[in-house]
Design a protein that fits this description.
By secondary structure, the protein is α+β, with helices and mostly antiparallel strands. The chain is 37% helix and 19% strand.
């Protein structure tokens, strides 16, 4: 488990040093609109994205260290064990389920680091309100760290990557 005494910014930089962070105005959308998008994501869009990654990027995913077991999960439209599909621009702030807004990344520490950085900035922000925040913006596609710790299916517990992270982006292939 990561050291919770570290600042979220430091944790993000240690875990994901190559992800740019941009300043933007975050406006909470209505609960009904967000819920409809989440429902579509949970029932159809996530599976379509995962199958798209397998169909369009399987050689690249293999080269980035995704295992056959990971790829088998994608074949069934399932998220591989230890991974999450992350909305780059959150559904809560005008993001959508387009493939150019989705990235497959390890749940821990990668996805966790993004939310430990972003979520405190959103505390107390009500529906319809806006606030300037700093949002981590990974590239769309699939994120996989290189190095020996990335070759295991279980999450790494190291604080810093052995080498820079690698991307398997979708270069303009949105839905």
């Amino acid at each position: 488990m990561s050291d919770r005494s570290e600042s979220p910014r430091r944790q993000l930089a240690a875990v994901l040093p190559d992800i740019p962070v941009v300043e933007m105005v975050y406006t909470r959308r209505s609960q009904a609109e967000r819920a409809a998008l989440r429902e579509a994501f949970d029932t159809e869009e996530r599976q379509a994205f995962l199958r798209h990654l397998l169909t369009e990027r399987s050689a690249e995913l293999r080269a980035r260290g995704f295992t056959e077991r990971n790829l088998e999960s994608l074949r069934f439209g399932k998220v591989p064990h230890g991974y999450n599909v992350h909305h780059i621009k959150p559904l809560d702030d005008g993001g959508d389920n387009g493939f150019d807004n989705l990235v497959l990344m390890r749940a821990h520490p990668d996805h966790e680091a993004i939310h430990r950085y972003l979520d405190p900035q959103l505390k107390g922000l009500e529906r319809g309100q806006s606030r300037t925040v700093r949002l981590p913006m990974p590239e769309a596609g699939a994120y996989r760290r290189s190095g020996p710790e990335a070759m295991r299916d279980e999450p790494s517990h190291s604080r810093a990557p052995a080498r820079p992270a690698r991307w398997a982006g979708l270069e303009g292939q949105g839905r």
